Amino acid sequence: MTGEDHAPTAPARLTLLLAVACGLAAANLYYVQPLAGPIAMALGLSPQAAGLSVTLTQLGYGLGLLLLVPLGDLIENRRLTLGLLGLAAMALLGAGLARQPLPFLAAALGIGLDTVAVQVLVPYAAHLAPEASRGRAVGNVMSGLMLGIMLARPVASFIADLASWHAMFLLAAAAMLVLIVVLARTLPARQPGLGLHYSGLLASMGHLLRDTPVLRRRALYHAALFAAFSVFWTTVPLLLAGPAFGLSQSGIALFSLAGAAGAVATPLAGRIADLGHSHRASALAMGMVALAFPLTHLAQPGSGWALGLLVLAAIVLDFGVAANLTLGQRAIFMLGANMRGRLNGLYMAAFFLGGSLGSAFGAWAYAHGGWTWTSGLGAALPVAALAYWTTEKRLGRFQQVTTNEACR
To answer: Half-sphere exposure of residue 198, counting CA atoms within 13 Å on the CB side?
Structure first.
């Protein structure tokens, strides 16, 4: 360990604040998803270009994970977080005021890029927690993040119906400004001790990926599970809006609230990890995700039972994915305080890529084979992760990083 033995202990109210901050910031990524159609119509975008706002937001986030999150190992964390949130507020304000396609799409890219402040705060919370309760602290903060993700879509739909899509982005910008004021007054400073320039910081990420087996393994686990998550949530609205169920957009928004139950999994997974049961808990999480898809075939499509089983599947799937995310982050954060930003950036980028591929292949599977093909694909991904899990060798913590270079 390098420096983390001297980390301050986070009081419960600070952990709660970090959870709220992560939830509010992470939600910025998802407001655009249910509003892509109305935004495209208002800005004069073609139907083929309607998804550009979502794509650019996600692209910006992916770039931020690789280019900005590692700065948490180099720049004082409070200053970095406040700066990113300030830029996010400006991008949200730009989106809310946009009346032409190009300014809105540029703002969407900026929203994604700067919302990676969330992934600076998560390792920051790990730094503030003592080793014995680090998993619990990360789990509590991740519960806020998961709630933000799950509630963003229905909140955006509600605000857009009540006022307009412009209002949603303007409210989000105001929320970021309030959050900046609160965090500036509350967060303790945390200055990393890494003596690298930015170019060296980015170059070291290749060494970390090459020389850190636990990072590669946990990233592959969660890439598979998040791909399954994306397969489900990309296609289930199509299933629910189709002839079998015929739900309205309001009904689909209510259905999406079922996923918020997954936020319960993160603090529970953190506590289990602190007790030393990450290995078995990971298999359980993967098994839950695999089980979710067959559940949806146990009743006649379109029946009340079928809808209830879809709700249950959403809860089980989101619970498993959220639990595995926390288990993975707790594992990589135990590798050392001086590289948590880079480790988290690589971990999140890997599973983010998995989610993007899951969305693409899920949409293709649904178009060609309906829910049967889609659920088969979704179930195969966690089963593949489980097969890889059986090869895991339970190395000691200090054997997880195989060269001294990975610690620099």
So the answer is: 6
- Rounded Cα distance, 211 and 403, in Å: 6
Helix 340-389 vs helix 278-295: crossing angle, to nearest 10? 60
Closest CA to 408 of 216, 220, 197: 197
SS3 253: helix
pLDDT in tens, 51-103: 678 778 888 998 998 899 889 888 899 999 999 999 999 999 999 999 999 99
* CA atoms lying within 13 Å on the CB side of residue 223: 17
pLDDT digits (tens, 9 = 90+) for 274-305: 888 889 999 999 999 999 999 999 999 889 99
Question: Cα separations (Å) of 142 from 216, 236, 264, 326?
Answer: 21, 24, 10, 7
Q: Report pLDDT for 79.
A: 94
| Distance (Å, whole) CA 37 – CA 42 | 9
pTM of structure: 0.77
CA–CA dist 152, 174 (Å, integer): 15
Predicted confidence band at 393 (pLDDT cuts at 50, 70, 90)? low
Contact 182, 17 (CB under 8 A): yes
Taking the CB of residue 275, how many other CB atoms lie within 10 A of it? 12
Do the Cβ atoms of 205 and 67 come closer than 8 Å?
no
CA–CA dist 63, 186 (Å, integer): 29
**Rounded-to-integer distance, Cα 165 and Cα 170, Å:** 9
